[in-house]
Amino acid sequence: MLMMAGAAGPTALAGLQGSASSREAICRTVDATADSYRVSASFLTRILWQESGFRTDVTSPAGAAGVAQFMPGTAAERGLGDPYDPDHAVPEAARFLAELIVKFGNTGLAAAAYNAGAARVTRWLKGETGLPTETQLYVLAVTGHHPEEWKSRRRDAPAATEQGNCFGITASLAGLRLSSPLARTASPRMAVWQIRLDEFLSRAARMKDQRPGTVPISGASRAAESLCNRIRALGAPCAVYER
User: Fold this and answer.
1) What's the structural domain count of the chain?
2) pTM for this entry
3) What is the pLDDT of residues 108-127, one digit of tens each?
């Protein structure tokens, strides 16, 4: 298991995840809505999980509300009357993400814009500003790739995380637990972000053999350590633990 800490709202904290029954209900909306807006159900699922853990009743300190964490101003602009109602918030999130994908060219940059705002991402693409560390970690958690990879290959974007059924994905994510010392000692303002190693095993399988004289480790461990190194480079703590 790879444990990653990054600045975020309270919605990714341990315990703040919807029940199996509520996830199943939301997933029915996710699957139907994603198809309607031609957005990957897997992508929409991971966005919503990162935002709220599929909780419909959460509100961030900044005022972002509901399963899709719409800010009040954004909700008003988009005609979303009740961001706490997943039957309305999930389709609006899908529609918003579809617009961002068209605007920026791929899902990675769309995820960055959903988190940091389209204006911030536009300025970043022009070289006028940087992306917040929170956003960099957010994109990495949702897509398995750093924003720079999405930026440098906008017309030939890297493959996103594996596709899958919404309920299957959330069941796997909900099965992960915050049991490391890192989770217990992190600042209250830091949320622990969890990434399933399964998403990186295909890349691990392509890694070269260990050099002579080194200690062999599993492909999963190599993939986790490689990802952790990228997270540490962003200034966030990261550790790899055996499942």
Assistant:
1) 1
2) 0.68
3) 999 999 999 999 999 999 99
